[in-house]
Amino acid sequence: MSFSIQRIRFDRTHVDTWSATNQELTNWPVVYVLDGASRSKKLYVGETISADKRMRQHLAGPKRQQDLTDIRVVVDERYNKSVCLDLESHLIRWFHGDGRYDILNGNDGLTDARYYDRELYRESFHDVFEALRAEGLFSRSIPQIENSDLFKLSPFKALTPDQAIAVEDIVSGILEDLRDPTRASTLVVEGAPGTGKTIIAIFLMKLLADIRDFRSHDDVEPDSIFAEFFTPESAALLQDLRMALVIPQQSLRLSVKKVFKKTPKLDPSMVLTPFQVGESRDVFDVVLVDETHRLNQRANQASGVQNKKFGQINERLFGADAPHHTQLDWIKARSRYQLLLVDGAQSVRPHDLSPSTLNAELTNAKNAHRHYPLTTQMRVRAGADYVEYIRMLLRGASVPRPDLGDYDLRFFDDLGEMRQAIRERDREVGLSRLVAGYAWDWVSKKDPSAFDIELDGERMRWNSADKDWINSPRSLDEVGSIHTVQGYDLNYAGVIIGPDLRLSSSGEIVADRDAYRDKKGKEDTGHLKGAFTDADLLVFVRNIYGVLLTRGMLGTYVYVCDGGLRERLRGLLK
């Protein structure tokens, strides 16, 4: 396909001259980019069937005050409205993922619709990208951008139908409730790995911020399902809205902070720990909790300082340090609305919220019609069937391998071969890593020259970085644990199932307490204090491998340490 990029100064004189000499574009679908490369680092992407009219609207609206200097119009005689909407969405996502510009777009109008010859058109989008990159608008390649956390965790996403329904209903409910100052509520989004729970939280915060700052129809996508929320009344209701996103895991929290730093109207200070919410003197209007199942009970914490803080927060909020108070109780005490993003099958430690607490929240949300299930698989190319297949295998079911399409699921008998295969995939597509269950001591934490895992002649170390390990310089040579990868995407995951999961003499899958080395993972604490059985340990170990085996978007490679389990899974996975 052939296209051209026409460049015009963003002022009335040049727009009038351009439109007079390009009258065919007054009624033709095009995509355009407004940027301030010479003055600012701001950029806006749009599409229109009337370029001259749209530019005059921008010149008369808020874009005029954004120090934008140039217009680039992408023209192709074979473009139609659907193609332009798709190209617009791709460019917005790529520009935000590149991180070079502050993107002035809202996230309410991104699409992923099907249309005639879509794949052929999308191939041409790469040529448009490269042409814009040649003009200095992009600093990295598409693979580099799409492998970044800034791209993967971006609020600029085309939502799946079940995500869109959830977001629409959540926004509608919040706006309705805000009209009654006495009303409060708890909403629950539930979904398996890869259904986009984190994306909903980030998308929703950006959308609410855009509605809050609504001033002109210049920025609203009229065909968006969220267009009805962009009104002066809604903006007034949200004017003083105080929002926070709570992320229990340190590594993921740091990555999301980086995304918020690069996203206009969001700020890293909005991403908090549960302790920060509990200690806050202010009451939040809306608190979104990612990985709610990883919130803590009143149990032995990671440090003496945190143990002391837990008690102090309980005393300040509830008058006493009673053992039944959890971090979820803190969040409810310090906020009017809570959005809980949950998957109970991803709890990995005894001090995580108890199943009874999670089930109570689910039941209450369902009864209040505030429960939103997510079923569309966004991460794993093989779809939801793969996720359920893995979970059934870990529960001991002998189920046949489903049709996984071109998903690259492989079983390895030699760890060295799997390690080499992961290196090859990383050279090809990037973001390919080895991960393992916590079945080896972390010796290298105190002695960097020591090795932690020695198998099949391979000597390896655990992750040397506990924050953003996947993107750290040495990650390809190391092995990541559950605490470094939960919540993240990989292109390929090489999973080492350690001796902490094995086959018993009776043919049952069991957890080996001695082989499981996460002290906090088998501590007699939380809701299991005094009754932490091997069956309870099996639930956590099984959940850990359920998470690790569902990180790979394009493929998963598997190596099993226990001989009996290796024979069982080889026959089922191959």
From TrEMBL:
Domain GIY-YIG as annotated: residue spans: 27-103
Protein name (database record): GIY-YIG domain-containing protein
